[in-house]
Design goal:
single chain, 84% helix, 0% strand, elongated
Amino acid sequence: MIKKIGSDVLAYIYSLPYLLGYIGRIFVSAVIFFHREKGARKVLIMQLLFTFIEALPIIAVLSFSLGSALYILGYSFLLSIGQDSLIYNLLTVIVVRELGPLLVAFVVTARSSTAIATELGGMVTSHQIESLVACGIDPIDYLVVPRFIGVTLSVFFLNLYFSFCGLIGPVVVTQFVNPVASYGYVDNLLKTFSLFMLLTSIVKSLLFGMIISITATYYGFNVERASTEIPIAGIQAVSKSFVGIILCDVLIIVLSIL
């Protein structure tokens, strides 16, 4: 067991320069992406369609349900101890700053990370990547960067959408459950908002989107010859994305309280 752990650590260290170069290459290509041919833009549009548009219903249900449940249960508890005004701080912190970006990233990882990794892995085993290179098309420019931009933008916009639905949902539900509790909801909610909270949420969503897209494309290209490696690449993409997202979230939280 110790030997296996040591070999895994060494393999990770040896692959680190390649990974850093891969990430740097993606960022450089992303800067000049929109000056390229229209073919790569079509890939970006399709990625936005799958990752952003098709995820709107499930994000709406999650955010609406979570925000409403949190407001109803939290308001009842805080009212019993005479601190009902704190519900707005609780709601904005959980929905906007903490849980919103994290849940959106998990949903996108579950839906898109496997799809991207298996798609690219299938292209490797079917020699489509070699065909692109033979035609003078850079796979990073044509396949990776559109997915990188598409997933990152999707997580960003889905996070804003999650926050909106999660904050509007409670006032809609309480109109039927307890109309008194919804009095002055919007005004009190706006008082708890801060620029730092919004910036933290935006930074999280952008970083999470980058982690998901880079991890998925990296493991998709790591497939070699056998088609049996494709599902393994999908599993690795999802698991490593989850680990990266959680570690990034913890790091941001630690830095925000220093």
